[in-house]
Amino acid sequence: MNAKVVDARGLACPQPVVLTLKALVDADQVVTLVDNPAAVENVTRLARSKGFSVQVTQRADGVELALTRGGAAPQAQSVTEHVVVCSTAGAAPGPLVLFVASDSLGRGPAELGERLMAAWFHALGEVATRPDRIIFMNSGVKLVVEGARTVEDIRGLADSGIEVLACGTCLGYFGLSDKLAVGQVSNMYDIATALLEAGRIVEL
Amino acid sequence: MAIDLFESVSECGCAAKVPAQELRDLLRGVQVPGGPDVLVGPDTLDDAGVYRLTDDQCLVQTLDFFPPVARDPRDYGRIAAANALSDVYAMGGRPLTALAIVCIPSALVRQGVLGAITRGAIQALEEAGCALLGGHSVLDPQPKFGLSVTGLVARDRMLTNAGARPGDRLILTKPLGTGVTIMAVRAGMASPAQEVEANRTMATLNARAAGLAVACKARGATDVTGFGLLGHGLQLARASGVSLEIGAAGVPMLEGALEFADQGLLSAAAYTNRDYVGDAVVFDDDVPLAVRDLLFDPQTSGGMLVCCPPDQVQSFLERAGAELSTPFGVVGRVVAADGPSRITVRGGAFGVGPAGEGGG
Prior knowledge:
The complex is a heterodimer.
Chain A: E1 4-7, H1 15-24, E2 29-34, H2 37-49, E3 52-59, E4 62-69, H3 77-83, E5 96-100, H4 110-124, E6 133-136, H5 151-159, E7 163-167, H6 168-173, E8 184-186, H7 188-196, E9 200-203
Parallel strand pairs in A: 1-2, 5-6, 5-9, 6-7, 7-8
Antiparallel strand pairs in A: 2-4, 3-4
Chain B: H1 20-27, E1 38-40, E2 49-52, E3 57-66, H2 73-89, E4 94-104, H3 106-110, H4 113-128, E5 131-139, E6 144-154, E7 169-172, H5 178-186, H6 192-203, H7 207-215, E8 220-223, H8 228-240, E9 242-247, H9 257-262, H10 268-277, E10 281-283, H11 289-296, E11 304-308, H12 313-323, E12 329-336, E13 343-346
Parallel strand pairs in B: 4-5, 9-13, 10-13
Antiparallel strand pairs in B: 1-2, 2-3, 3-6, 4-6, 7-11, 7-12, 8-11, 9-12
Helix pairs in contact in B: 2-4, 5-6, 7-12, 8-10
């Protein structure tokens, strides 16, 4: 089973707790990445109060907290597996990545661009070729937050197994850190890895 | 609510303090200018400095400011003023004059936020009977507000960290938990009632509590702020050359605060406070983790920790019941130190009687 990953590095308390709590609601395994001692203790307290066991692993780029509902701690590998998970589509040598760096599709009036973007994600659910991963960056993150008209369609894509990543820095920039409605918060390291490992990238 | 000040800050209130250990290290071996008339200087880490003016009158001076602790600007101003005034009360003094310290982004000035903060502060100053003489403001991306307050205290009524005596009962005059509650508000996990009650206790002046302490002939007292109950308690114990015993069950706490601690809504400062006290605080096994956490929780405009002579406790509590608008309680007692000052935290509560043994 793959764990949900919450990347709370660079975030001050209470954000690591808030994001982990959201992830705990409908998951049996959650991996939270943090980068300060207070966040390690706070996420540990949260997990225990919600009946999760906690396994703490020091990594070069932070601290990994593997939370498991109820019983035993998870295998450390499950995390790595998730972060670089690739389900190769067709003949492509690597995953197909959809890179969304704007909340508006194409150049032209913003209103038209936003309408087109909504239509794009609606259509994507009906298209046979699916991306393995969708990355939202810059104003693109506005498409995956509470209240966005695209959320419903993107959630459908996520539920069908497509990994949805939203740039944490971008969410923070727009003051939307606690408004993510679908997908996981990600960082530049993971996003760069995802783009460089991609077999094909479609940029919007 | 039009403005949410929490959207403009990364650290809140007294949680934004420089750690106590760093302040101690900073002052070690430094000769600060003083003289025979400095009765309370930086060495005891007291709430305010005290300077002798005449044989019986002393000047009390303090300065306190911090980033927003409430979402509403007016609440924030009121709380910041109550917090700054508290340092004068904690010395047994009467505040006379205040100067405002303001750091604020220009956008918030245009939106009228500074005006609202100032009105909140003025409300607290009027209640305290303290004059506002002016202030200084600086444009700054992160808002901060506070006051420098000057007051007077009669020398024989002075309350200090160094005045605790073995046998004194420790009385706390406000509930703990403002730190975790502020964090819970930021996380969207506090109920409106919990937010309102935390704001109410923070905005409450320590004037009456200090008046009771002086009336009951207490000599040792402090207000509980950024270093938490145990951090301030340890400073008091060390300055007085005594040890403390705390009965955790008797410590008043804000409704919901234990759950917030249990869910990890602690500020980094709470852990810094825990690290600061180190081995000097010992917990009995039956003190739950969430309770320990709250004893380290940094407080904003917290209550007075009063060292009340044992024969005055009954009278203090009776008058407190009539005069204080916040929950209060006997939280422990002062004992002689056999070696370096320590704090022992027990799970039970301390009685008010002369025996006053813990573990109840």
